[in-house]
Structures are given as structure tokens and as C-alpha cells.
């Protein structure tokens, strides 16, 4: 008997019946043109349908619940785990219908929840058995596993069909993976081939909905960012070809020993091909060069090229296109790029830094911005799916921007509140309202807002265990049996829930954290006693807190809260540790003390949002790491095992693929960004087969990591965990939050108000360039420096009013009523000031002083430690004559009050005074005077609006982001304290007099080392105290020096014992977890803070990138964007001479353009073939091919010049074509001369190939976006250059006397200003800082001086530089991500973008080459056929022409102004063109520029 159950409509709009599937007539199909993404196959049944879903229909076929599939021959099955399965109702395998008993059994098995969980356990156990240690067991169980997998395939094929139907077995990509793995496993029995078998582990992701969506989004985003991928490939091609042309063979330079001469004076032939005569240092064979700035050979050696192999087993070079592309890929992924630059610097000079910076900015930074924006859009769609609605409430987008607000109630048209995707398990319950929709309500103390509830609400909170406990258990746990208990609970709850009690606990946690941070190696006895008794006192406080809360809230309510359970666990473990303190082997319990610090997250919501991690995201990373670890072990185990002799001293590298754990460490290291060194090792033993594996792992792994970060950002937005400092908070939140940021906020706003105009506010970028102008009424206003001022204008009082009162002979201000009676001298003085003010407002005055400041700073780059006296004298003259005179002129012209009323003038005054003090009293001020001296370049802020607008934006947002940075600091403190507890005193070893580390078999302890007269040495980077631990964690986070830190941790044993090789190998998990929580989550949270603040600031500025632009740049940006909406004007005038018209028709034809495009593609391919290994015959052939290409390009240029004459140069692209093609004749016949003195043929053809940008739509889109961003990038680069100048000057004065150690050598030092600037630039981009830090901390002064930079100066300078660069790059990246995200959202919402209109205009110009604005009506259908997305129609073009209903003129032509609006009106919501009668008349108005 068929039962029917009425349920709510899908989306809360249409009512339908939950009824078993039958062949009866279905209701008519809905008009929806798309299926509901929340009801697609594989998704869980939405919450608003679960309550009304009949339990007896679980696992049974029912009519499709999605109105889109009604009457489409489908049915669904809701599994026991609430997952939707969709099947075709037609026959499976052409023999089994939906009513077939066999198929029904197969459907029941494939949708059964227990079968689902069983397959998860089978696949998980199969993944574990892939370890080599269990290989024998795997061979035994292998047939049984294969039988289970084969049975699963058969059952699914019977239930769904094989291939032909829409919901057949192989229509699911996850089934493809399982099917191929099963076939591969069958093949491995006979042929030993099972490549896809290890990849079956990835199927573990498919068992969880959110992890499956997260994993799939990383793949789907690749399909949606085709333009970005093409831009990345084109960038890699361009830079690889360029660097191959410039640096082929330079890394084979060697220093060869000079041989003595014979007795007769003739020189003996040098045996330079013998490696014994090559100079070596501690890095191996020394690289050298003969160009300016390269590394010179020692005396007695000569630098010669093309000797031996390249560095790093020969894999680091630019000799061929492939290895050049690998090196460029290494720079783009920022993996030890500074090491590659050091090699090129030594062999070819420092000018390669320009190419590295271009690749880092446009090849790495910009591509990551594009990828992040695409992932934001992808996650928005994913959240829409999880919420089961078209417009998500998690992150509302209006006008393409983040709203970032948490919706407290459902929208009026939504009757339900859905679950929060990616949210963690929190102690919430649902209270059913009258309308049937669940409303989330927090349980006691599970949030910072718990104290808002009064005591009665807390006691009467709903018990999540209600219905599960018996009445006896309720009586024993509730403690509400008598009036005495109730009164006691009322009394105690008024204490434990009071805000002062919570504040006391918060202070106790902070005090306990400080005490834990004081613990370090070799601690004094008094400090050890203090830490011990502090721990005992804090333990008692926590104990009484737990007791009072249990008595006040009863065990039932106390243990219902997650924070309370966590507190009780801490107390319980602490007492266990106290009882078992003297028992050996239980010292691990000491680490539970660190968990007390986590309790601060209860009072500090920003820290709580970091600690509240969705482990589903990390499960995806775990599956990826495990799967690729098994695959890497399967591919390279044999090669590593048999070719170990190829490594130095036949020592196996730590990162290898010999077992799953080491493989996992290697994959984790690759995901963190360190792939190139392990790639060299793998390529040495396995050859080029490693590159595809590493390339796919790096690309897809980084996409997955970035996807996890973006998902964290989206959920943080939804939870609204980032808020402003001055936002309204609850009482408890105010107690906790004000404790950490209240003092900072007050100090910040007090100190930084001098740099901003207004108290706590940054002025709008619309304000003009400023100097103060005072009107006759005494009103101060900001004026532009370039404004023309009348000569009759007068200035305000030169001095404050009190000066005229105490010194009457100075006269009175001209604003005074008695000003007319002043002597002639005073009038002359005022007239002089007025003229001086006019002069200072001119452009030349500002430019002269800006150039003067630049020259002053540039001169210091020539400073050398041996020429200090000359530069000190020149510097003093610059300061006295220049800066002091400038300040006095401003004071005289503007007046004291107006001058000091502007923040930037006050800043300029302070910089000038401090710099003057540093020059006059520099010796007595010590290092402080050097800090003052380095501030000289900051005077440029007064003359550059581009610099000020970026600085103002940074200061304005920093107070907001300070909360996130402080929360991240607390997380890092937790890991630093844990590191001290784990590794304090263990990073030591014994060395002999030669500096060689002794083996543990020789010396096993510190005592034996001392008895043997050896040295007990500590690692420079260690965990002996919290400060050193922070430095070590920073190196791990930035992947600089992290390898040696991990190796020392893995070798550590006990305090004062010699380390043993991998004695504690699982300590690497500490660093892995730190990378997940301390780096990934903290980075995502800080990134979220920037995004939210920039989104709020955008509302005032009108756009995202406008927040970092000057008013003039904004006007230019508006003009640039408006040109995309203008109708296409004629690009080239119509030739008037009849002889030119055939040539014009030829060069504008599509066949001619296609031919030139193909020639450019083939020219690009030939550039990749020409390398240093090309044979003589191949070189001759390539020469002839390039000759033909050159002739084609020259003929093209000549034809266009003949056709259009001088009007050819009216287009910028035509000018570029002329500039790169015109030198070809000279290069064709004088190639050797041109290559030697001008430009090489390869580089010239590379510039010609760049013309592809004009012809490839995807590339043109990306380059247009980069062109729009260029002003922002220019402003930021100017700021970075100013900061680099300032730090280079500071380091040159602080550390010019430091000796050579670690990362300080002949090419990387601070002795010369240019080298200092070069090294600071590398550190700003995240490179070389670990070596510089180690070298400077060695405090090894050179022979000429006993004074060098202190360790305090080193820490302050380097860490402030890294922090500033991090904040700048993250802020700019946030701005660019939001701007590109807005573009993608607008494209998705309206279906049309600026680039689409540009493409439309380009197509229109093909049919209207002379810009008349009309095309023939007969060509209109051809015009529509030539259009690309989104104007391309699926309907016949004759039908589309009729549907557009465009008016036709009397001469049978259609106008541009009629065609474009008609096309825009016929775009649907998804940006697709349709040819029927539908239209949206308001869309064209929505696209008009403001």
C-alpha cells in the first residue's frame, strides 16, 4: 500500500508529497531552469526537510524531491545518514528496471549507512596497510580487499547503471577513481602495475560532505580560472626564455688555479678541466664571475666558464628551457629563491635582482591574488549549496562586496534557519518557535555572551542530555531536591557568575602564563622556586573555582558546558601530576600545564576564534598527505633504496620516500613550500620522473592549502569573530578584551593622531595636497600645492599670539585691527612671507626638495666603513644647509600655528630635529642616534601624496588588526612555551677542536665531553627560553632554517646528553601541528581582519583599490574604466587613396590576423628550443626559421604602413609593433654586432611574441586588470623603496663592523650601502633573513673594530622589517583580492564585465573597421555568430536577430547604440544569452558607469 506524507516545500515555497517512487503520472515539471544545489546527489538532506521526512521511507526509493527533476525519469533515496542518492528510473544495464528485485537490493546496499561506514573502515585500513612494515600482511589480505572493492563496483553499477544515463556509475568522478584503482589492482596481479591503487586513499574525503566539497572546490577552481592559469603559463614562458637567454652557462663558472711558467718563460697549458685545480670552499666549488659586482676569485686563481656541472647536482641552471622553467617555478613558489639569487649574484652580478622582483610580484604575488579571489567566489557558491538557498546569509554580497555581518534572524521570505557549514561542535541547542523554525540558543558559559543571561536563565538552560538520563540520574546530578540546596546554589552562582570573579580568573590565567614563560634552561634556584609555587597557587585557585562552579550550577549543568569540562580536565590532570610528581616516565603530564593558557580564549573572543578550528578542513589535508605519501613511496622507494651511494658520504637524506612516515614528512614539507631540495634528491636517484609528481603535488597541494585558508576566512566572516576595537561588546567580553587592548588602543590613538588629520580618523583620499593656508578670518584649511595664489594674498601670524604680547616690537598679526598702523618693516616682512608662500606652493619647489632628499639618501648608499669621515662631513652639510633651511622657510611662510596644526608637518618637524641631533651629538647618543639618522628618508612623506595615502591606510587599519595580531601572539606563546618544555637544554652537542660534531658512540653526555677536552656547543637557534623559541618558530613559519631546527628536534634525547640520529623522530609532529594552527589559522584570521576593515573603508572611498590611490589616480582610473563603456571609435581612418584600400582590406581580414597569430605561436615555440645544448646544425636551422619569421613580421609592418600611413601610429599597440619589428632588418644582417652592442635576436623575438597578449582574450583580461592595479602597486612599491632605504641606512651604520659569519659574506653584508640595500630588499620579500640573523647574532666583529651591532639591535631591526613587510603585503593583497572578487561577483551576477564589453567592441570593429557606428543588417547574423561569451546564443542566429528586435535604418544598417542595449536585455541571471522573447530592461541601466 502506497503511503504519502506531506512535507514542506523545497526552499519553503512549494508543497510536495514524500511518497514512494511509482510509475504513476507525476506533477508537471517546474519552470526552474536549474536544479537546486542543496538537493543534488551526494548532499545531506537539508535540516528543514529532516523533521518532516518519514522515518519509514529512509532507504526507500521516493519521488524526486527536487522540482527540477520532476518528470525527468529520476527518483531519489535518502540514506540512513541523511545523504541524498539520485537514480535514473530507466533500466539499468538495459535489463533491470526500477521495480527489479535485484536492483532494489543493490540500491538498498549502496545507500545503507552501515555499508557506508564499513567501506570507510575498509579503505582506511587498506591505507594503513600500505606502509612497508605491514606489506606482508597486505599481500595476505590483498585478495579479500580486492573482492570487497570489486563487489562494491558491481553493486553500484547494478544500482545506477554503467555509463549512458545521467546518474550512472561512471558519471561520478569519485567512481572513476575507484573504478580505475580496481582495474589497476587487477592488473597488478599479472603485470605488477598498480599505479592508481595508492590513490584510492583519496576516497576517504568522499565519505564526509564538507570535506568532499572542500576537496572538489580545489579542483573546480582550476576550471574557472583559465585566464589566470594561462597568465601563469605565459609568465613562466616569458621569464624562462628571458633568463635562459641571459644566464645560460653562467652557473658553471669556476675558479681555476694559475699554473707556473716554464723556465723559458712560456706558459704551461692550464689543466682547467681537472677538478683538482678548482677552488673550493665550505659550500663546494666556488662560483665566480668577471662582470661588475660578481664574486672575484682569490689571488692565484682565474675565473673560467663552462667547467663541470651546475650547482645542486646540476639541476640549478638556465642552460635549457626546461631547467630554466624549473628555476622560474622555484622563484614563483618562493622556495629558497634567495639562494638562487646568491648564485647568480656571484656569477653574473647583482642586476638579476630586478628580474627576481618582477617574478616575485607579477609571477607569484599577483597570481596568488587572482587565485584567492576565484576561491572566494567558489566558497560562496559552496556555502550557498550547504545552506540550501540561492543567496547565502553567511557572507552577503551587495554590489560585489563583503557585508560580513551575522544574520541574527532569517529573512522574511525564509521560514528556516540552516546549520552553519564548517562550524565546529559547539554546545548549542535548538528551541522550537511557534512557526516551527529552530532558533539557536547558547548554553551556559559556552560563549563570551553567557553572562548576559541572568542567573535564573543559566540554571534553567536546556540540558542536552535531556531524554537520555533517568529520573534517578537527574536527581543525583541536578541538586534541586531541597530548599537548602537551592539557596546554596543561588548564593554561589551570584559569586561565580559575577564579572569581577571572571576578571579575577582572567588575571590568574595571565599571571600563570607569565610564570610559565619564565621557565627556561639553566634557571636559577630562586626563579625555579617562584615558578613552582606559582604553579601550586594557581592550581588551588582553579580547584576552588571548579568546586564552586559545580556546587553553584550542579554537575548536570556544569558538565554540559564545553569550557567547564575543559577546566575540570585541567584540574584533574594537574592533581594527578602533583601526586605522581616523582614517578619516572610521567613527566609528559607537565605539558598539560600549557593547556591552562588556552582558557584565555574564553575571555578573549579573537583567540577563541583561532582555537575554534574546523577539523574537517585538516582532514582533507591529512588525506591528501597520506595519499601522496603512499604514492611517493610506491614510485620512488626502490630508487632511493638502490641509489643511496649517489648521495654525499652515502648518507640517506632525512626527507625521503622509504616509508610512509618519512614520505608524509616530505609531502608536508612540500605543502609548506620547501619542495626544491627534496626534488634535487629525488631527481638524483629517479631522474626526470620526479618532476611530474612534484609539480602536481606543489600546484594542487598549494591550492588545497589556500582553499583551507579561504574556508576559514569565510567562516570567520560568518561568525563575525573580527570586530572593531570600539564596537559594542558584552560585559564579560569587555572585561577580557579591554584587559588586552584597552591600554594599547588609548596609546595608539594618542600617538598616531599626529600622523593623521583628525582624532583617530584618517582623512578621505579626496583631500588635496596640503600646506596650511590661513584666511583673513583666521580659518585654517588645506590647499593644493599647485593652486595659483594671488600676489596680494597675505600670510597669518608668523609666531604664536603670546609672542606679540610679550614682545611688542615684533608687531602684530595682519589679522589684527591695528595691523594698518605697523611700520614699513613689518609690512615688508609680511609681504616677503606672502611671496614665500606662493613660491612654496609651486611644483618646482616641491620637486627640488624631493630630489634633494633623494640625493641625500642616495649618497649614503656609497658609504663605506673605511670612508666614514668624508660622508659624515657631507651629511652634516646636507642637514644644516638643506633640511634646516627647508623647515625654517616653512615656518616663516606658513606660521607656527598653521604649520603645527597639520599632522604631517609635525611629523616632518620631528624627523628633522631628530636627524639634526643625530648629526651633532651622534657619538654621545650611541645606537639611538643611528636610528634617528635613518629616519631622514621619511621626509619624502611630506612631498609625495602617493606615499602618504598608503601610510594613512596602514595606520588606519592597524588598530583594527592589532586584535588579530595579539591573538596570534598568544597562540605563538603557547607553542613557544610547549617548545621550551620539550626541547630546553636539548639542542646541544659535543664538538672537537676542528668543529666537527662527534658521534653519540664516541661521546654520550656533556660530562664525557668535558673530560675529553672537547666543547659542549649549543645550537644558535634553540628552545632554551621563550625568546629563542619565538625566533625558532618564526624560522619554521617562514621556511628559513626550519630544516635544521626540525633535525635537531628529531635528534634530541635528554638534557646534557649527546643527540642521536632520529632518536625522537616523532617530535616533527610538533612542528606540523604548529604549521596548521600557529601559521595557517593565525594567518587566515589576520587576513580576515584586513578583509573586513578594507570592506568597511570601501564604502567611503567608492572602491577597494581607491583606498590606496591619490585623487589624481582615481580620476585616471575612472577615465580608464569609462573607456570600456564607450562605443568603439574608428581605430584607423579609412584610406582615401584607392591604391591603399586593398592593403587595408588585407591587413584587417580575419585570415590575415589568424596567419600572424600562428606565426607568433610558432616563433614562441622556436624560442624554447634554442639553448646552450643546441647542436650546430640545429642552430643553423633555427637561424633560417627566425629569418623567415622576421621577413613575415617585416612584411606585415610594411603592409600596414602602406595601408594607413602616419595614422598607423595612432594606436599604442601599433607603436609597440613598430618598435619591436623595425630593428629586425638590422638584426638579420648584422646579428653579431647587434648581439654584442645592442640587443640579441632571441630577446627581440621574445618582445615580438609578447604581441600575443593583444590577440588572446584571456591574457588581455588579466593584463587589463593588472593595468588597473598598476597605480596601487606603484604606490606600494614607492613605500617599500622608502622603507628599504631607511633600513639600509640603519643597517649600514649599525652592522658595518660585523665580521663574516653564517649568512654574512663578501656579497651579503652591510659594509657598503648598495649591498645593504640589496640585502634589505631580499629580507623584505622574505628571503635571506635567517642567515643574516645568525651572522649578526654571532657578534663577531672584524679586526678593525671592537664595536658592532648588539643582539638587541639585531632583533629590533630584523623583526620590525619582517613585520612591516608582512603587514604591507597582506594589506595590499587583501585590497586586490576584494577588488578582483568584486569583478568576479559582478560577472556572475550580471553576466557582463568590462572585459566582455571590450571584446564586444573588438568584434564590432571587425565588421565596422572605420568606426561609423553602423554595420549592414545582412551581416548582423554573422556578427552575432562571431561574438563570444556571454553574448553567444544557443539559438539559431536568425531567431536571435528576430528576438532582439533591433531597429533598422533606411539604408539597411543597424546602429551600435541599439545593438548593445538589446543584447544586454537578453542576458539571463547567469549571464547567458537567450533568443526567445524574454528580456530584462533594467540590466542595461545597471551597467552604466557612475
Question: What do these coordinates show?
Answer:
The N terminus and C terminus are likely disordered. The radius of gyration is 37 Å and the shape is globular. Helix content is 56%, strand content 4%. Helix 7 packs antiparallel against helix 10, helix 7 crosses helix 46 and helix 18 packs across helix 32. The chain is mainly α. The longest helix is centred in the last third of the chain and has 40 residues. The strands form eight sheets. Strands 3-4-5 form a three-stranded antiparallel β-sheet, with no helix packed on it. It has a two-stranded antiparallel sheet with strand order 1-2. It has 54 helices and 17 strands. The chain starts with a strand and ends with a helix.
Topology at a glance:
Layout: E1 5-7, E2 16-18, H1 47-50, E3 61-63, E4 74-78, E5 84-88, H2 101-110, H3 113-128, H4 135-160, H5 173-191, H6 209-224, H7 226-247, E6 254-257, E7 280-281, E8 284-285, E9 301-304, H8 321-332, H9 337-348, H10 353-387, E10 428-432, E11 438-442, H11 455-459, H12 471-478, H13 483-496, H14 499-518, H15 525-558, H16 562-579, H17 595-598, H18 605-611, H19 615-642, H20 660-671, H21 676-686, H22 690-719, H23 731-752, E12 772-774, E13 780-782, H24 801-806, H25 824-840, H26 843-860, H27 868-894, H28 896-900, H29 903-920, H30 922-925, H31 927-933, H32 945-983, E14 988-991, H33 1006-1011, E15 1015-1018, H34 1026-1038, H35 1042-1051, H36 1068-1101, H37 1111-1123, H38 1141-1147, H39 1150-1169, H40 1176-1204, H41 1212-1221, H42 1224-1229, H43 1231-1237, H44 1241-1249, H45 1252-1255, H46 1257-1294, H47 1313-1324, H48 1329-1337, H49 1351-1390, H50 1394-1407, E16 1414-1416, H51 1420-1426, H52 1437-1444, E17 1453-1455, H53 1456-1465, H54 1483-1486
Antiparallel strand pairs: 1-2, 3-4, 4-5, 6-9, 7-8, 10-11, 12-13, 14-15, 16-17
Helix pairs in contact: 2-4, 4-5, 6-10, 6-19, 6-22, 7-8, 7-10, 7-46, 10-22, 10-49, 13-15, 14-15, 14-23, 15-16, 18-32, 19-20, 19-22, 22-36, 23-32, 25-27, 26-27, 27-29, 29-31, 31-46, 32-34, 32-36, 32-46, 34-35, 36-49, 38-40, 39-40, 39-44, 46-47, 46-49, 48-49, 51-52
